[in-house]
Model the fold of this input.
Amino acid sequence: MLLKSAGFILLICTLFGCEAAQVERHDVRKFPEGFQFGTSTASYQIEGSWNVDGKAENIWDHMTHNNPCVIADCSNGDVACDSYNQYKRDVEMMRELGIDFYRFSLSWPRILPTSFPDYISEPGSQYYSNLIDELLKYNIEPVVTLYHWDLPQKLQEMGGWTNPHIVDWFADYARVAFTLYGDRVKHWITINEPREVCYQGYGANTKAPALNIKGVADYMCVKNLLLAHAKAYHIFDQEFRPKLNGSIFIALSAQFYEPETEKEIVAAKEANQFEWGIYAHPIFSDTGDYPPIVKEKVAAKSAEQGFFRSRLPEFTPEEVDYVKGTSDYFGLNHYTTFLVYRNESVAGMYDVPSMYDDLGNVHYQPSEWEYGAASVNMRVVPWGFYKLLALIREDFNNPPVFITENGYATFTGLDDTSTRISYLRQYLSALLDAIDEGSDVRAYSLWSLMDNFEWMFGYNSRFGLYEVNFSDPARPRTPRKSAFMYKQMLRTRALDWHYEPDTTVMTIDEGH
Ligand code: BGC
Done:
């Protein structure tokens, strides 16, 4: 009851800007029985060995080699954390932390250098096999993402996610992966963060391939990506699940969009629909298909602009059914929250056509919100996480949720008590509030195990529980204070606001 009313206060306060959600309300809070903890990484961000053992070029290799200074520090993932050679040390760190599972991704062009299943690279596929065996040796469950943004460059040259043939290309690659590793991997994620793939990669220039063809290429990508995801799901469901009995799901990035005032409720609702509902609604709603408001707004704007059809390619009724219900969990990557308003100033603010022009509102983060140490746009807003989980529970009939990513960026330095640890305590507390209110959250995966290539920010922005020294060829990894906090949380299965590690020496507990 106490927790329920705490949650209620949280809800009321947030609408009117009260900070109640940020106070420490409980000293020690237990996680539910069976709740699973892990950490996440992605192939391009950690592996390095970009051209070793026959691996072909991906869109990040291509972009960073041809135009290095699109990345803040003009760096690339050629070596990154060198996990291609150091995976045993990575697993050792996981044992130090005591995690239940490890979420990592496969590199498509490392396994299939031609992009297609006509040739499977023996050393490339063996790398993941070795990693999986090493994890299982220590009872760490592999959770494998098929696609975390490193598309084979060759497929990009044929249009990448705007080419409808990618549905088959991706499905073939998925089938190869299920066949190679399905005997040992039970949990699969099809695609990481469709919004970043489609909007940032095709509708903007903030991720590879940086096409920046707004309001057209991004929407083409949305449809193809959802069909590709669904096809991989059906292959797994029909051909592999009966033998393997595992799970398969998608990881959506959803930041939360909160109305600035009560009169902006519709604007904020539409922001949530355009930003991530466009992927969630087709999969998790009872009716399937894109959110009706997204369809209406894009169709109306397209007509006004002289297009002969909506720039958002429609699904046929068969496709709606094919995509609906294709995720065993609501995989959720969440970092921060924005406020939303809509007024006359929006006219002329965005490129025409574009997704933001179709949506027609403004989002921002007030300057008084605590900002992220290494990123002003990653403000610390734990109540947004709570509200987002409530919205998912209400809109999609309380699906089982798997937090596939959540985390905080700093710069170098091992003492992250007032930054990462503080963020994690507040966000995990918000997550426990949502669970107390009935959200069915089953697992939490922290981004990230160690510092890695942070996309457009290069190595400036550090998300790791372990710091990596990128100027040392050996890429040594050193635990930050947050690694000790996470370890203690996993040991006790409880969040303790006041835990202070009494050592800086990491060891492996018995049984790990
Ligand atoms: C991505 C990660 C990324 C992290 C931090 C997510 O958008 O999936 O690859 O490093 O956020 O920015």
Remarks:
- DSSP finds 17 helices and 15 strands in the chain.
- Residues 42, 45, 192-193, 196, 253, 333, 405, 447, 454, 463 surround beta-D-glucopyranose (CB under 6 Å).
- The chain has a mean pLDDT of 95.
- The domain at 35-496 is CATH 3.20.20.80 (TIM Barrel).
